[in-house]
Amino acid sequence: MKYFLLACTFLLLTNPTIAQEFEPIFNGKDLSGWTIHGTEHWYVEDGELVCESGPDKEYGYLTTDKTYKNFVLSLDFKQESNGNSGVFIRSSVEGTKIEGWQVEVAPLGSHTGGIYESYGRGWLKKPSPEDEKALKPGEWNHMVIRVEGDKVTSWLNDKKMVALEDQKIGQATGSIALQIHSATEGNEVKVRWKNLHIKVLD
């Protein structure tokens, strides 16, 4: 019994999806509280947030009007067509150039859950090939991102993907941003999002 209680306590302390009180950052009706950057399409359909390639088929972003430093973000995504996207933390956007760190959302084998620094150092940490198999292509996937101080940890479908400690990330504050990747003709991007909730830690 003693070891069972210790195990339960460990789960409560380390799993951000347990015993946490989250608030929605997407109301399921419109894009209130968010700003579109670029010409790609962002809209609400059946209570879900949808992004898909627009006329320029370039990078686009949807950023929160609020900024966040330490938080746990919980969301669901489903990749349709080419599902290349991502979730940025502590980010800022000028035009369609973003500064910040992306937790990758991409097709199978393209490092979903890994952490990438745009216009900077590139890949900071990728999940193992075995862990990447947690992605369910064409189905709803659950992602959790915990950002606290210098530390960023990602989970995909309850599988821990990466944990990174980085001083540069620790110094930043900024928006949460959803990305739509650039596309080629006949390979447009489309991703659906829902259940976007946040728990502020500071």
Describe the structure.
Helices cover 8% and strands 49% of the residues. The chain is mostly beta strands. Strands 1, 3, 4, 6, 11, 12, 13 and 15 form an eight-stranded antiparallel β-sheet that branches. A seven-stranded antiparallel β-sheet has the order 2-5-14-7-8-9-10, with no helix packed on it. The chain is globular and about 40 Å long. The protein starts with a helix and ends with a strand.
Short description:
By secondary structure, this protein is mainly β. The protein contains two helices and 15 strands.
Could you outline the blueprint of secondary structure elements for this entry?
Elements: H1 2-14, E1 23-24, E2 34-37, E3 41-45, E4 48-52, E5 60-64, E6 71-81, E7 85-94, E8 97-105, E9 115-117, E10 122-125, E11 140-148, E12 151-156, E13 159-165, H2 167-170, E14 175-180, E15 189-200
Antiparallel strand pairs: 1-15, 2-5, 3-4, 4-15, 5-14, 6-11, 6-15, 7-8, 7-14, 8-9, 9-10, 11-12, 12-13
From the structure above, extract its key features.
disordered N terminus; globular; 8-stranded antiparallel beta sheet; Jelly Rolls; 202 residues; 49% strand; mainly beta; 7-stranded antiparallel beta sheet; signal; single chain
Provide the number of structural domains: 1
In N-to-C order, the SSE pattern is HEEEEEEEEEEEEEHEE
CATH topology: Jelly Rolls
So, CATH architecture?
Sandwich
- Fourth-level CATH superfamily: Exo-inulinase, domain 1
Query: pLDDT average, as an integer?
Result: 90
Pfam family, one: 3keto-disac_hyd
Keywords: Signal
Signal peptide: 1-19
Domain 3-keto-alpha-glucoside-1,2-lyase/3-keto-2-hydroxy-glucal hydratase: 22-199
